[in-house]
Amino acid sequence: MTGEATKHLPLEDLHSAASARFGAFAGWSMPLTYPAGVMKEHLHTREHAGLFDISHMKLFEVGGPGAADLLDRACPIEAGALEISQSKYTFFLSEAAGIIDDLIVTRLGDNRFMVVANAGNAVEDEKHLRALAADFDAKVDPLDRVFLAIQGPDAWAALSRAGIETGSLLFMHGVEPRPNWFMSRSGYTGEDGFEIGLPEADARDLVAKLLQDERVQWIGLAARDSLRLEAGLCLHGQDLTPEIDPASAGLMWAVPKEVRASGGFIGADALRSILERGPSQKRVGLKPDGRQPVRAGAALFDADGNPAGHVTSGGFGPSTGHPVAMGYVNTALAKRGTRLFADVRGTKIPIDIVSLPFTPHRYRKG
Hints:
globular, 6-stranded antiparallel β-barrel, single chain, 6-stranded mixed β-sheet, Elongation Factor Tu (Ef-tu), domain 3, Gyrase A, domain 2, alpha+beta, Alpha-Beta Plaits, 366 residues
């Protein structure tokens, strides 16, 4: 127990009125499910539009003449090379190249950037960024915003009906459509969708308009997890940790080649060393035989009973119709089609390495 008080979402009363079941996550009281249940919430998002309250996540505005240089030091990124409104998936790394947090950075102007950080790391992320900012002509401002996500094939149409036009915005781009608003075409489900940070009064008005549309319904944290797992997306604290580097995680696509070669980001030397010798483990997709899910923490073994790795995320995929999982295995075994065995309460369940994602991404890239 940390003794820290549980944090509550600004719109908690709306979730209570919708009969949400709450649970603890990253120090917050979060809606886990609504009366429809996880399966229906998951499938509704895939088929129509799911509305998520992600206000536990944190938005930081980074500005000033040295803002791009600050971000280039903090992350393996070329912040100054981003186009205005372009977003980039990136990381805070330790000196050993471990992933302290994964983030999305959006360029809002010549010297202005928006950084979206994970809830469980928000406090440490702010300290980390502020400490680095002392060496640059830059300022870090945490923003007090409600943060909503609307995901699914009908998301754009539902926003349009609510008076928010999104037509020219493409995947991994963000804009400020109104004063004190930030909207990006991004998300955590594999579907086309949007994330919107806005003042509480505006958020209440937008939620009311969106929920008048039968295509939109509240979706809880449980379905958010099954959606992101089917999409092969990582959860920090499980699939990504300070002990895991981007090469092992299969995320080197997020690090520009020039930055890999000569970037001065924290952890650069360690990451180059890992790339030179090759990572000892790799993140893979895993499909268990049968219908029983294999959960995070399950140990993996090869055909001879030798330790082979471990599962970091696992559950049942409502869209795939079968169990899905991700984990890390020894690099020599990390080939599609390799059969391993997961230890589930003493029973060895056959589990095959498969390609990620389990469901195709449906982003609007233009």
